[in-house]
Predict the structure.
Amino acid sequence: MNTPDLSVSSHPIAILGGSFDPIHFGHIKPVIYAAKLLDIQQVLLMPAYVSPHKKNTVANTRQRLAMIELVCREYPLFKAEPRELLKEHRSYTLDTLQEISQEDPQQQCYFFIGMDSLLNFTKWYKYQEILRFCQLIVYTRPNYNLKNINNETKSLLRQYKLKDSKQLEQQQCGGILLISCPEDIEQDISSSHIRAKLKQQQNCQHLMPTSIIKYICDHQLYS
């Protein structure tokens, strides 16, 4: 799996998936930082129809996609990728990555997740097969660290963890790169935390773009 592949594309596909209910700076800022570090030109924001790891969303598919499109207008790095929404059923990361790989087998794929997701990664559907189709880019999040990982994740990192970003260029897939974000980039927030604050009519200006707050207010979401 870690065999060097000299045919790797110079412009990999980069993806950030999630429920995005709603999308917030905890999604946006670390990925912008990592993309700059890795010289990534575009990141696809791919909302799940229903996340395999979560209960049903609060905002509907149209509303979540609309909020993502607002982020894409404000931050040119991002582009909306609605393929999982259009399927209208629960999708697994592995299935989507396989589909993308079939469209262009030579295209390298970077898949972004937060440290919180890495700690639960071994619970994902066929998690080891996921690494056959992507490089996993893991960005740090406050209050989540490698001290709390289970034995399966320790084994996974021993096998696949990359020393630095240069190793990304030496293989098509099968690596896990950890990126430490500066403190001013990291924010200890989650969509559920934001929904709770919005329900209590608390100020969330520092947690997500103004355009998203306006959309939420205009459509009376999470109240």
About this structure: The first strand starts at residue 13 and ends at 18. Residues 2 and 133 are 12 Å apart (CA to CA).
